[in-house]
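Ticket #4471: structure output looks truncated?

Reporter: J.K.
Steps to reproduce: submitted the chain below (267 residues) through the standard prediction queue, then opened the result file.
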Amino acid sequence: MSIPQEALYSNKIFLNAALPLVKVIATDVPSLAKKFEHAHAVIQVSCLNPEVPEGKVGMHFVVNSGEWLVHTCLTKDPHIELEFKSVEALNGFFKGNITLGAIPKIHGIKKAGTLVAFVQVLLKMASLLGADKAPEDEETQKLMVKCFFYLLSSGISQLNKMGHPEIHDWALKSPDRVYAFAVNDHPEVAAYIRVKAGKTRAGRGEYKRAMPFFTLRFDSFKSALGTLLGTDDMLESTKSGKLIMDGAPEFGAQLGSFLLMVGDLAK
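Returned output as attached by the reporter:
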């Protein structure tokens, strides 16, 4: 039986959009960053997939004294590997549907300290992305918004590269445009996606080569989380100035529908 397309979409988002957030969390949270100050390891997350030539798919990190490199591909002989038995098992684990069948095999327990620290980062990522309301602490709000911006922009781009019908059709018809996500007075918390003739590229930070075609902008981290977590009404947020659409509203609606697609696939 072939793997359902929806499962493959979710798998790509987890491997290429969500898991790269480990680097953000492991470097932005001081208590977690400290655990990797003297770590030297190649850490891989993978799942078996009989439908690809290699027999599995995955991504890996190279950690060197607190410096992280992210590679959205497999590597040979990692020091630590979390290997799931199937695409569905990996998806279930990161969606929080943890059953015995969703627990990965762990290779490389000789670096037990680094493994434990890595799992702690995964748990932090799960708590941030799985939250149903905004935390009170502003630093945590900031980290959550940054992670969501990165996840959503990368997720849209990954779905386009996989040929998702609606998103790829939009990308094919698009001239060279940049769609951005921003919070007022916080340029360090921003992301964008560039679209041109069927191709997309997600980026972190502000797009500085030109003015973005459309920006979904918020007046604060809390306002951003109200929209991103679905706890605020978008129309009311727009009326009150919590949400600012720098560009035509119809493009905001279109972008919003894609954000929901990514969010649904990651839940």
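Triage note (M.O.): checked the attachment and the full token line is present. The chain is about 45% helix and 20% strand.
Status: closed, working as intended.
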